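If you are new to this repository, start here. Below is one unmodified record pulled from the training split, so you can see the exact layout before writing a loader.
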Amino acid sequence: MTLPLTGVPRTGLPGHAVVVGDPARAAQLAALLDAPKEVAHRREYRTFTGTWQGLPVVVASHGIGAPGALILFQELARAGVTHLIRLGTAGAIRDGVGDGDLVIADAAVRDDGVTQQLVPAEYPAFAAPEAVLALQRAARAAEAPYHRGVVWTRAAFQPGFLPLPGEAYARAGVAAIEMELSALYVFAATHGLVAGGALVVDGANADELVDEEATGGYDPHRGVVADGVTRGARITLDALRLLAADVPAPPRHAR
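And here is the target side for that same chain:
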């Protein structure tokens, strides 16, 4: 009675979920919950349930990259999840966004390598406004440094032989670059779900993420990043609680 790729139960999951890339980060978030329980672990997909201040929640990992992450989003939705917030890391693009800061993503550039196969190129990747506002309220209550804006979801982590449009995106005010969020936003919007994203900055200059020779290497394991992730975990869980208090479950689109 489990779903085929992630191993999550087909029924009975709570409706509110935090999704992260790293299976170890999923365990880290689960340790914050009351009565945490690991309910599935298959490949990069590690899933826990528990409660946060009385709210039943799911915490699950999706690995690196939008195509694999989409599998988790699909199977969580099939299992009954209706509200999803991605807590991830990102490289800053916009000036003034520093290491360890939180970026709350209003929308995402669809350079993810998978949603082009799902919907037309003109279809936007946007967060649910109520999720953005819940994250903002939670960040303010925590007195955490945060920024709002558009993020760039890019499929390739390292550069190839094609020039990157980073300078143009910086001029356009894009806040940060990451690898999965636009897939969540497109999937959620096309299936009647509520989705948001909160990203901890692990490189204050996006060039560090794509030009290892010039910078001496990208290091996402510094203390300032770890502190930001710990802070972001509580903010994300608080945002789910706010959503549960303020927003009824959305209608499901027929498929």
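Two things worth knowing about this chain: The chain has eight helices and ten strands. The domain at 16-246 is CATH 3.40.50.1580 (Rossmann fold).
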